[in-house]
Amino acid sequence: MPLKYGWNIPGPTFYAGMAHGVLFIGYCLWVVIVAIQLKWTITKVFWALIASLLPFGPFVADRKLFRYEVNG
Question: Which ranges carry the DUF3817 domain (predicted)?
Answer without folding.
Answer: 1-65
